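Submission sheet (multi-component)
Chains listed below:
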Amino acid sequence: MLTLRSLLRPTRRVYAHCDIPCGIYDPEQARIEAESCLRIIEKHDASDDKLFRARCIHVKEERAELVKHHLDVLWHDYFKPEHLEKHPGIHETFWKATKQASKVKQTMDVAAAKELLLMIDSVDEMWKATGGPEKTRVSGRPA
Amino acid sequence: MTAERGPRRALFLALGSLAAVTAAAVAAGRWLDIVAVSGRSMAPTLLAGDRLLVEAFSYRRRPPRAGEIILAADPRRPSRELVKRIGGVDPSSGSAELVGDAPDASTDSRSFGPVDLVDVRWRAAFRVWPPGRVGLVR
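Outcome: structure written.
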């Protein structure tokens, strides 16, 4: 028998889709990995242990790759075209910062690692200017 | 009493036949259909669990217009059907920008680009569930 219930039964599902509905996007993630790179380079330079130095190089390359990944996620997924209108420098900033991360991956240059931190800080400024902390951070984080 | 019964019976008849026609059309599934909404990118207009009556008449006569809520295949994963709002239509390229009513929680044309208008067949017309939010979708 035809009932109201059978009449209203959906035949398929449609998606008001969002890739990450509660997206957490935070430049701090990239910053922490970049700080690791800097510290590892310093530890590498201060050591005479061949094995330790080899491990430093290996781990630093992993961390630098993570910096690139976290920057990419911010670039592709957090920043939207409407942000670009107000902050036309977004693409240039990310392009330079990810290139700098490559440089830190390839070299043992302390200055390059410090420069990368400054570049991540300029990403952080744009993130804050677009309301990033309010939009993407879970409240209740210790100051 | 008898004076009232006539119009009331007519109303019941009209509603009854409307329901029957709707039922037949939904059963056919080609022109009208009931779909369930997942996700929250169309909040507050559409919420997860809402059921919509969708129709495929309008876009046989005319192209979709900005502001309408439509169904379209996800360009990145065509087996997934999206429900989004038309943000804008570009007649010269025959494409439409899809947006979510909750832009901060929506993956839409800002990520995957415009979609072809010819692929947009279904328009969301009416919310049939939940009972408290039954009404036209706009």
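Remark: Helices of chain B lie at 2-28, 58-61, 109-112.
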